[in-house]
Amino acid sequence: MDALRSKPFDPRKAAFWEDKEPVPFLFFARVMDMISNESGRLVMTEILCNAFRTVIATTPQDLLPVVYLSANKIAPAHDGIELGIGDASIIKALADAFGRKEDQIKSQMKALGDLGLVAKASRSTQRLMFKHPPLTCAKVLETFRSIAKESGKDSQEKKRSRMKSLLVAATDCEPQYLVRLLQAKLRVGLAEATVLVALAQAAVYAEQPPVSSSMLPGRLEEAAEIMKQTYSVLPIFEKIVPILLTDGISKLPEVCAFTVGVPVGPMLAKPTKGVSEILDKFQNTVFTCEYKYDGERAQIHYFEDGRVEVYSRNAERNTGKFPDVTSSISGYKKPEVSSFVMDCEIVAYDKESNKILPFQVLSTRARKGVILSDIKVKVLIFAFDLLYLNGRVLLQEQLVRRRELLYQSFIEKPGEFQFATATNTKELEEIQSFLNDAINHSCEGLIVKTLEKDATYEPAKRSNNWLKLKKDYMDTIGDSLDLVPIGAFHGRGKRVGVYGAFLLACYDPDKEEYQSICKIGTGFTEAVLEERSNTLRKHVIDTPRPYYRYGETLAVDVWFDPVEVWEVKAADLSISPVHKAAYGELETSKGISLRFPRLLRMREDKKPEQATSSDQVVDLYRAQKINHRSTKNEDDSS
Ligand code: ATP
Questions:
Q1: Residue of the nearest CA to atom 31 in ligand 1?
Q2: Of 133, 218, 468, 495, which sits with the fewest C-beta atoms within 10 Å of its C-beta?
Q3: What integer pLDDT is reported at residue 57 of this predicted model?
Q4: What atom of ligand 1 comes closest to residue 269's alpha carbon?
């Protein structure tokens, strides 16, 4: 495998199989092992790029499964296909495959802290009776997909037997990575962006005639950008990989464009603390302020044949939740509109009193299978963007144009379908009073967007061109944080029998780890505290996960698996010697912590890995410093 690091790199030398033979899973497992020993992003990218080059040179038809495994995915996110297995199931499969007792496995798991390592150790202590044919990457992916498809009665058993069939055939370090893939956590520090960059670079190296060495650095950079851009609008490796192999990377933007039926990750906003910060950031820029409605983000796709799909903030199919939206949406479009993709916020609405209802009311609606005639909570759609119209992709258009087309193509119906209320004023007082109007209309605040320049739609990006201003947070840190409880402290006094406080963490997607950020014991009603304690008690683990970072002095009583996300408000952020959020980013050997955190609510729409990231924590800390400074200056001048 050292061949993967040799310079100049010869793709064929790294292969230990013949051309056109299926790529062994062992190759993938060893590549992951190599990557896990590295911490630098550039080296990781280089190793993965060389692995992809090896596959392209020998067995190009296996590039797709190898890419899928590297991205730790089995299907595009919007297909909603999941393996649907937990640690308990994997432990059973391991026991079956390696002839061990479940208890033995559990206690070894305590000692090693990682089920993948237990799997590896189990294989190495077991004598092999039969020699199974070697696993291939294609076979592993295919089996994962079959596991995901199992449903109904006996499905857990069938899933386990498929897992077992893979485990008994695994050798060397294969069991370790099989198990981690099954847990959907490779934990080698490989972020999705790295996989995309490595794939783009491998495609450049494979170009014929070869790119000259003087052109290479520029070409690699350009290719990475093309790949990221393409994937953000069409996150489907089945479409991307074949084009790379036949036509090369330059063809991607033309062939793999945004299309109806494939949601893009929504564009997101950065938090701000006040109107003056907005004017500061957007000076010399034309911008618009819109009401920030407190409901649920929805991307509505309308196909030429009249079909409708609704996708969530996580680009997941959410159509079953909104039969009222799917049945009514065509009634708001003008006759000349044949297909569209619209970005909007769906809010709960009381038609009697003509009032927007709080977010919590909407969240009482079932997530799928809602029947039109059973609907009690009515909704109102607030449209604020148009991404596609009559076969034309609008992502690259400026917001001013997209909004014009939105206004031209649809007709408002009060109480059912409206455009987000907006103003284009630049005056501080007017924005301030617009903000007050928004609050009086049951909105959370404003979203302020660039209009004419740097105003394209940036899928799946927290953009500098969209700023959010939440009234509630103006006296705190500008935004709430979405954090994951990873541990707790036993309650005392009035709180005996429940947890008294919890340890919360943010998530670092690059390092794939949860970093502690604060203890929290405020903001809970008795009922909520009991409910959370009861739920989390089911997820207690004996030792903290190896991917938890926390100060040893915290002396947590129990640890949990990362299973839920809580929205938390705090007074401010400070540099901490104990907590590990964004560890070392601002000061060596120190992290960031929250002061006076209080619980707001559960975020049922977010997965733990979508918690506030450590980069966002750094941004909030920096913004707070700037704001402190500007308030101080204002104070000084008065
Ligand atoms: P984020 O989506 O930024 O991670 P979040 O899910 O906690 O954070 P908020 O901080 O409340 O959401 O703010 C962003 C959300 O506001 C958007 O994702 C969207 O659902 C909602 N929203 C409401 N009105 C608008 C609007 N006019 N333009 C854009 N988004 C809006």
A1: 292
A2: 133
A3: 97
A4: 3
Residue nearest to atom 2 of ligand 1 (CA): 268
Residue 297 near ligand 1, beta carbon < 6 Å: yes
Contact 449 CB / ligand 1 (< 6 Å): no
pLDDT of residue 627: 58
Domains of the chain: 2-72+190-255 (1.10.3260.10), 87-134+141-183 (1.10.3260.10), 268-474 (3.30.470.30), 481-627 (2.40.50.140)
pLDDT of res. 631? 47
Residue 468 Cβ inside 6 Å of ligand 1? The answer reads yes
Residue the block writes with tokens 């947070």: 473
For residue 626, what pLDDT is reported? Answer: 64
Catalytic residue IDs: 292
Count of all residues that appear for the chain in the document: 638
For the CA of 385, the nearest atom of ligand 1 = 28
**How far apart (Å, rounded) are the C-alpha atoms in residues 598 and 596?**
7
Token pair 């402290």 is at which residue? 489
Return the number of other C-beta atoms located less than 10 Å from residue 427's C-beta: 12
DSSP assigned state of 10: -
Closest atom of ligand 1 to CA, residue 605: 6
Answer yes or no: are the C-beta atoms of 504 and 519 closer than 8 Å. Answer: yes
Among protein residues, the one whose CA lies closest to atom 19 of ligand 1:
297
State the pLDDT at residue 638: 31
Ligand 1 mean position, distance from CA 170 (Å): 45
Which of 264, 293, 479 for mutating ligand 1's site (highest number of atoms within 8 Å of CB)? 293
Count Cβ atoms below 10 Å from residue 385 Cβ, excluding itself: 21
Q: Given this model, what pLDDT does residue 634 score? A: 39
Q: What is the C-alpha to C-alpha distance for residues 447 and 384, in angstroms, rounded to an integer?
A: 11
Handedness of CA 256, 259, 261, 266 (dihedral sign): positive
pLDDT given for residue 546 in this prediction: 81
What does 473-514 look like in DSSP terms, one character per residue?
A: GTTTTSS-EEEEEEEEEE--GGGTTSEEEEEEEEEETTTTEE
Report CA(269)–ligand 1 centroid distance (Å).
Answer: 7
Cβ atoms within 10 A of the Cβ of 195, count?
25
Entry pTM: 0.81
CA–centroid distance, residue 607 to ligand 1 (Å): 16
Give the Cβ contact number of residue 575 at 10 Å. 13
> To test the ligand 1 pocket, which listed residue (291, 310, 313) has its Cβ within 8 A of the most ligand atoms?
313
CA proximity to 44, closest of 195, 218, 225, 179: 195
Do residues 234 and 257 make contact, with C-beta atoms less than 8 angstroms apart? yes
Q: Given this model, what pLDDT does residue 488 score? A: 97
Residue type, 289: C
β-bridge mates for residue 298, sequence order: 344
Q: Taking the chain (638 residues) in consecutive chunks of 10 residues, what is each chunk's mean pLDDT? A: 84 94 97 89 93 98 98 89 88 92 90 86 72 93 96 91 94 94 80 92 94 94 95 93 96 92 94 90 94 97 97 91 97 98 97 92 88 93 98 96 98 97 93 94 96 94 94 82 97 90 94 93 94 93 88 93 94 94 94 95 90 95 70 40
- DSSP per-residue letters across 142-155: HHHHHHHH--STTH
d(CA 578, CA 155): 45
In this prediction, residue 190 carries a pLDDT of 77
Instruction: Measure 268 CA to ligand 1 centroid, in angstroms.
Output: 7
